[in-house]
């Protein structure tokens, strides 16, 4: 092995037999410049430090033939102190760039470093040259960091490439973020001869990333807390660029609650809802591909909901953002209000007819004008009380028996036997009381016009009971008319029948069945309480 003085074979010590043998100085070949043993016509090579050298063969006369043969075939590096202008220029350049640059031995010891890397940490080359990279000041503030850098060196020495964001220590025990790289440099034969470490200050970039993350977190908090649904989407097109679907990229927590769509992020609309109406895609394609901003209200049978939607395009092309609200309840309220307006008009007409029928009925049974006035006035007051229950039941609960009396009172015949009312005491929630009052009003009005109360012999039997239905407490009410005119099924469904169905089934979640028995109309009503 070469000794510390250089790569040449070790010479025999003085006084040894070999040392006493003569060793004639080789003669310089004529016509050639150079030094003995270093032919001048060999080209000058450079080592990795930039120093010049030539390769020579050395033959020692005291060696035996085998030693001579080995010595003649052994090539030794003979460094030359010749300067390399290119190498000096590169070193000077590296000392003036705002970056960390260093070279390491494959085992990790520092062999060179540029001046900025030393200045920023307040170091000298003597502090780092020959020292393991991971033990240098920049990393020696945390054992976990040092272990990771040591692993980086091992990886690079095996031919791998390391690049990551790292934290290094600088002067004053301050910390700096750097884009840190470690790669291997190979010689002409592909052998790894050294490692090159570099780093660029990215402290400002990291600060910008933190500011951006904080801004995004604030926006996320806003979108997560608003009382509206939000989603970011992209249009999906076919090979020809035509829109075929749209994908949900981001959604806020209210998105699922307002749409009923679960795990929507990353999935497309038609994947989640194959029956979704095409109009949604057409509208959103105008936004994502056409660049329009639109506001609209639209219902979806596939989702069973109605939405108020604001849609606007965002970058990149094809993407759009939605802010929307489920207004299904509002639309149902508007529909119910329109129905009530129609009912009011219908009730006014019915009230006038009822008053006329009540006046005629009272007049037929009154003995004199005074008794007629008393009976007629009482029935008008009962009718007014029924209106109060219908429109004011929302303030509390209503007694079912009182509700029935208020509705049937204005139509009650003189003969009490013609009304058979039986059932337990039941307190109705306000919505149920309101809806049932409308239903009873329709039934009794119909009976006064065409049924059991339209003659002098008809009877109405009304009974009810409570019990369990679909694991809920429910009211079952039966309306039966007898001895009235013969009942014929209607040619078409009238408004009153539609009102009963809409009120019981859609508004109250109940059920109803109207039976047109020739002997008298029957109605079966089931209401959850």
TrEMBL record:
Lineage: superkingdom: Bacteria
Keywords on record: ATP-binding, Flavoprotein, FMN, Kinase, Nucleotide-binding, Phosphoprotein, Repeat, Transferase, Virulence
Biased composition (Low complexity): 76-86
Pfam families with a match to the protein in the record: HWE_HK (PF07536), PAS_4 (PF08448), PAS_8 (PF13188)
Reactions that this protein is recorded to catalyse: ATP + protein L-histidine = ADP + protein N-phospho-L-histidine
Biased amino acid composition, Basic and acidic residues: 18-31, 39-49
Enzyme class: transferase
InterPro entries linked to this entry: HATPase_C_sf, PAS, PAS-assoc_C, PAS-like_dom_sf, PAS_4, Sig_transdc_His_kinase_HWE
Domain PAS: 86-160
Molecular function per GO: ATP binding; protein histidine kinase activity
EC number(s) recorded for this UniProt protein: 2.7.13.3
Region: Disordered, residue numbers: 1-50, 65-86
PAC domain mapped to chain residues: 161-214
Protein name (record): histidine kinase
Originating organism: Marinicauda algicola
């Amino acid at each position: 092995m070469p000794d510390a003085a250089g790569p040449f074979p070790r010479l025999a010590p003085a006084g040894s037999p070999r040392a006493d043998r003569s060793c004639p100085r080789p003669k310089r070949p004529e016509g050639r410049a150079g030094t003995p043993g270093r032919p001048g016509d060999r080209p000058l090579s450079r080592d990795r430090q930039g120093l010049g050298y030539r390769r020579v063969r050395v033959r020692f006369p005291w060696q035996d033939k085998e030693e001579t043969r080995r010595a003649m075939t052994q090539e030794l590096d003979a460094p030359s102190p010749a300067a390399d202008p290119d190498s000096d220029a590169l070193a000077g350049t590296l000392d003036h760039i705002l970056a960390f640059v260093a070279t390491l031995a494959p085992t990790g010891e520092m062999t060179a470093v540029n001046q900025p890397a030393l200045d920023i940490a307040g170091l000298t080359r003597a502090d780092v040259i020959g020292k393991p990279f991971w033990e240098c000041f920049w990393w020696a503030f945390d054992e976990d960091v040092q272990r990771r850098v040591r692993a980086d060196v091992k990886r690079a020495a095996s031919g791998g490439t390391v690049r990551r964001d790292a934290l290094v220590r600088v002067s004053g025990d301050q910390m700096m973020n750097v884009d840190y790289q470690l790669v291997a440099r190979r010689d002409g034969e592909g052998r790894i001869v050294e490692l090159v470490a570099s780093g660029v200050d990215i402290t400002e970039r990291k600060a910008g990333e933190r500011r951006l993350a904080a801004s995004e977190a604030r926006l996320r908090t806003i979108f997560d807390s608003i009382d509206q649904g939000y989603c970011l989407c992209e249009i999906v097109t076919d090979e020809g660029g035509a829109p075929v679907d749209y994908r949900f990229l981001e959604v806020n927590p209210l998105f699922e609650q307002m749409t009923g769509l679960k795990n929507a992020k990353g999935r497309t609309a038609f994947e989640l809802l194959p029956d979704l109406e095409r109009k949604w895609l057409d509208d959103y394609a105008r936004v994502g591909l056409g660049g329009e901003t639109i506001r609209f209200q639209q219902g979806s049978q596939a989702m069973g909901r109605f939405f108020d939607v604001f849609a606007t395009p965002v970058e990149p092309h094809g993407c759009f953002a939605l802010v929307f609200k489920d207004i299904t309840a509002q639309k149902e309220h508007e529909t119910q209000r329109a129905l009530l307006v129609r009912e009011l008009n219908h009730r006014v007409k019915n009230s006038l007819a009822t008053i006329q029928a009540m006046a005629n009925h009272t007049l037929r049974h009154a003995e004199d004008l005074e008794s007629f006035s008393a009976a007629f006035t009482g029935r008008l007051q009962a009718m007014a009380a029924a209106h109060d229950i219908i429109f004011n039941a929302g303030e509390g609960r209503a007694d079912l028996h009182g509700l029935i009396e208020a509705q049937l009172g204005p139509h009650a015949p003189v003969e009490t036997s013609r009304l058979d009312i039986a059932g337990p005491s039941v307190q109705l929630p306000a919505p149920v009381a309101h809806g049932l009052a409308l239903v009873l009003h329709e039934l009794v009005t119909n009976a006064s016009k065409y049924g059991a109360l339209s003659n002098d012999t008809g009877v109405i039997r009304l009974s009810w009971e409570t019990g369990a239905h679909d694991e809920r407490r429910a009211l079952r009410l039966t309306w039966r008319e007898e001895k009235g005119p013969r009942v014929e099924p209607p040619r078409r469904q009238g408004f009153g029948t539609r009102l009963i169905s809409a009120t019981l089934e859609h508004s109250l979640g109940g059920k109803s069945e109207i039976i047109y028995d020739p002997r008298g109309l029957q109605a079966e009503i089931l209401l959850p309480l």
